[in-house]
Amino acid sequence: MTSITRRLALAFVAAAGLAAPAFAQAPREIRLDYATYNPVSLLLKERGILEKALEADGIKVRWVLSAGSNKALEFLNSGSIDFGSTAGAAALIGKINGNPIKSIYVYSRPEWTALVTGARSEITKVADLKGKRVAVTRGTDPHIFLVRALADAGLTEKDVKLVLLQHADGRLALERGDVDAWAGLDPMIAAAEIESGAKLFYRKPEDNTWGILNVREAFANENPALVKKVLAAYEQARAYALANPAAVKKVLVDATKLSEAVIERQLTRTELTHSTIGQAQVDGITAAGLALKEAGVLPASTDVKAAVDALLDRRFAATN
User: Fold this and answer.
1) Using CA atoms, how far apart are residues 300 and 297, in angstroms rounded to an integer?
2) Is there a single domain that holds both residue 235 and residue 311?
3) Distance (Å, rounded) from C-alpha 108 to C-alpha 244?
4) pTM of the entire structure?
5) What's the number of domains the chain is made of?
6) SS3 track for 213-272
7) pLDDT (tens digit, 9 = 90+) per residue, 105-137?
8) CB distance 288 to 88 below 8 Å
9) In terms of domains, do 202 and 106 share one?
10) What is the pLDDT of residues 187-208, one digit of tens each?
């Protein structure tokens, strides 16, 4: 069908008040991220589960490494990937800022972030950060965690000196003494603990938002059956992870080049028993959004509840 004929056809059905026909063809390739903060994605990639599921459809799978939620959101916003792994609160901020995504799946319930300082540091509480240099990756769960921790201590971002670095570089900056503290992410936190004696001086598991898989909104609308196939593959990988914890450890060791001791520490803080986005995820993401609004990170006019509702796509909940 030529583009002119297609436009005429669409104009006809619009004038007649009919539903638009389905001209969209299935993509030849699906692009997903994989990340060390998403162990299920590593197993999914390693075992080729999705490739096997899509082989009969002639659809290829391309994998793109995400170094953090901010990178996954950048890739989704630019259309470089179709599915991306983020923290729930990071996805919410992305949605509020106009990123056309939908959250469709839970890949983990982690305590993957904490505030970290060096082995010899005298910092013991959040209030001690006033005037100090803090490494952080903006737009990620560690950044959101830091904002909430500061607010709980009666401080804001203006009371500290933010040093904006990707997660791995934040760890290096802490160990070199270039910063006083770091809002970190596992497995880098676990590595800093075991390899250099870093201290987690502030932990609050409930302020870690869920590990969430997101999809480009246009992709989900055009290819709902493929979204279901991706989630079914994710479920196979998650079930395998629960039944084979040694395989989870091995795939993380291979991906990160970190020691087994480091990965074991990370996995003590990573729960893989959830998959469906439900009320617990709604409540956790909403609480983070309200805290960010109170701290001035989100505009005072932000309707957090409406933003969360717009972020979550419940069409796919039954497949999890």
Assistant:
1) 9
2) yes
3) 16
4) 0.86
5) 2
6) EEEEHHHHHHCHHHHHHHHHHHHHHHHHHHHCHHHHHHHHHHHHCCCHHHHHHHHCCEEC
7) 999 999 999 999 999 999 999 999 999 999 999
8) yes
9) no
10) 999 999 999 999 999 999 999 9
